[in-house]
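User: Sequence in, structure out. Go.
Assistant: Echoing your sequence, followed by the structure tokens.
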Amino acid sequence: MRRLTLICAATALIAGGAIAQAPAPDPAQGQNSRDGRHDFDWEIGSWNTQLRLLRNPLSGAAPDWADYQGTSEVRPILDGRFNLVELSVAGAGGRIEGAALRLYDPRSRQWSLNYANVSSGTLTTPVYGSFDGHGRGSFYAHDTLDGRAILVRFIITVTSPREARFEQAYSADNGRSWETNWIAVDTRR
């Protein structure tokens, strides 16, 4: 499992040490003027997690999906200015355990989602973005997969107070097309 970002978010793994920069903002979205520091407050607590992971993203081969079930625990840090997601799921493909540290930058009014998988012990390239004020968060990053440049898109959709969907996709053609590789549905316990 090369990239797992969630939440975790999601998904999806680059060795640590590289300095990542947020991709340029999408001019169609305009300047984000919302104060989003409380955008993840809805998620604090305990969740049941159902995860589908594409094990062979952007390979051109027939999709090889693995299903997992487990839990996610979301805790506030520093009076809720940041939060930490602990993911633990298992399935026929094995076990996935990791943590996502979500950091809010009040100057840019954006979150960075930073994921670390227990099996590698490294942080993935963070995805950057914000929520739209209607329960949908969009986060993006430039990354690499098997040595080639890709874009990463991580979408969080709050479907109800008791359920949320996390979907990660990769693009090898600068965002013209996307291949989903991580779908998680969390239900409040």
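User: And one key feature?
Assistant: The longest strand covers residues 65-77.
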